[in-house]
Design goal:
Elements (H helix, E strand, L loop, with lengths): L1 E6 L3 H5 L2 H10 L4 E7 L14 E5 L5 H10 L4 E4 L4 H10 L3 E5 L1 H5 L1 H4 L4 E3 L8 H7 L19 H13 L6 E5 L11 H14 L3 E4 L5 H13 L5 E2 L6 H10 L2 E5 L2 H9 L3 E5 L4 H4 L6 E5 L23 H19 L1
Parallel strand pairs: 1-2, 1-4, 2-3, 4-5, 5-6, 7-8, 7-10, 8-9, 10-11, 11-12
Length: 339
């Protein structure tokens, strides 16, 4: 069987497609599985399991090679996780006998809907993203698949993480704070981050590590946090790629972050984490198969109930006390497990 997967969204979306990739491999161990992704996800490729070939779209003339590669293949199935004009074009080029997508495409574009011939009666708004992605594989007979996310961290990423820890004199017990995101509306106030970091430094003997992406927006945010922090913290911001960051997270006692790619990396490595949600709905994106406490809005305690319909909350509503309490809870539970 020859299967084509189209996932042209961000890193987090790609990570949450991994359970579907694993389920397809389990159900069709001899299948040839091709994945088409955007160039923004390139750092993740060495950790992708259960895929035979990866094709990269860059929205440039070089995509002609991808177009030709798809047109030459004889695919049995094409699953479109992306559901936009570009992915519809790729599905058309594939010539797959069965081209699968959510039924929502029929509501969005009658022209685009003609490209597909199998519509799954599910929509992302009503489901966790992992469940939505798995539902798109049901026409292939995939049922009751595991929802866990697994990364195949390559040895170079592990070695880079070890070197960063060694060179920065970070001990074996440390906490990672990752405040950054590609979206500024997910930023929590720098003074609040500084207060949480300072409190942690004063009340634990754990090393404190700060990470972020290399973008100017995130680096400015990190600088503001450091300027207000009274505790020693090792700044590794901008010094990791995606997979070395994942390897660091895998060794951490705890990750404290916002709804962003590191949240999904921690879920894949089973690292306990406190996650701050604001404008996005944790119903669709939260970790479910790993230790995680979710904070959103003015609640002093972590959320235990989630709804598909939930308003957008400003990050400013999350209190430092709520974050500290959630951290203490997870640190206590992991310390009990270690002892």
């Amino acid at each position: 069987m020859n299967i084509l997967l189209l996932q042209l969204k961000r890193v987090g979306d790609l990570i949450l497609t991994m359970p579907t990739m694993a389920a397809l491999r389990e159900n069709f161990p001899d299948a040839r599985i091709t994945l088409v992704v955007s160039s923004e996800c390139a750092d993740l490729f060495p950790a992708l399991l259960n895929i035979d070939r990866i094709l990269i779209t860059r929205r440039k003339l070089r995509d002609i090679a991808v177009f030709l590669a798809l047109a030459r293949e004889r695919f049995d199935y094409c699953i479109d996780f992306t559901r936009n004009d570009r992915s519809a074009f790729l599905a058309f080029l594939s010539g797959a006998r069965r081209r699968v997508v959510s039924y929502r495409v029929r509501d969005q574009s009658k022209i685009r809907a003609r490209i597909y011939n199998q519509f799954v009666d599910n929509r992302m708004r009503d489901m966790h993203t992992v469940d939505y992605n798995l539902a798109l594989a049901e026409p292939l007979g995939v049922r009751n698949a595991s929802r866990a996310v697994h990364l195949g961290l390559p040895e170079p990423a592990r070695e880079k993480a070890k070197k960063l820890l060694r060179d920065s004199k970070i001990g074996s017990h440390f906490i990672i704070f990752h405040p950054g995101s590609a979206r500024i509306e997910k930023f929590w106030d720098p003074a609040c981050w500084a207060q949480v970091i300072s409190h942690t430094g004063q009340n634990t003997d754990l090393d404190l590590v700060l990470t972020s992406g290399a973008s100017l927006l995130e680096q400015i945010h990190i600088a503001e946090i450091k300027a207000k922090t009274r505790q020693r913290i090792v700044d590794l911001s901008g010094r990791t790629d995606l997979l070395s960051l994942a390897a660091l997270i895998a060794q951490a006692r705890l990750l404290v972050t916002v709804d962003s790619a590191p949240m999904h990396l921690a879920a894949a490595t089973q690292t306990p984490q406190v996650v701050l949600f604001g404008p996005t709905n944790p119903f669709h994106w939260r970790p479910r198969e790993s230790p995680a406490l979710i904070l959103q809005g003015e609640s002093r305690i972590a959320l235990t109930e989630f709804s598909a319909i939930r308003p957008r909350f400003p990050m400013s509503q999350i209190s430092t006390e709520a974050v500290i309490d959630a951290m203490n809870s997870l640190l206590l539970s992991t310390a009990t497990q270690i002892s």
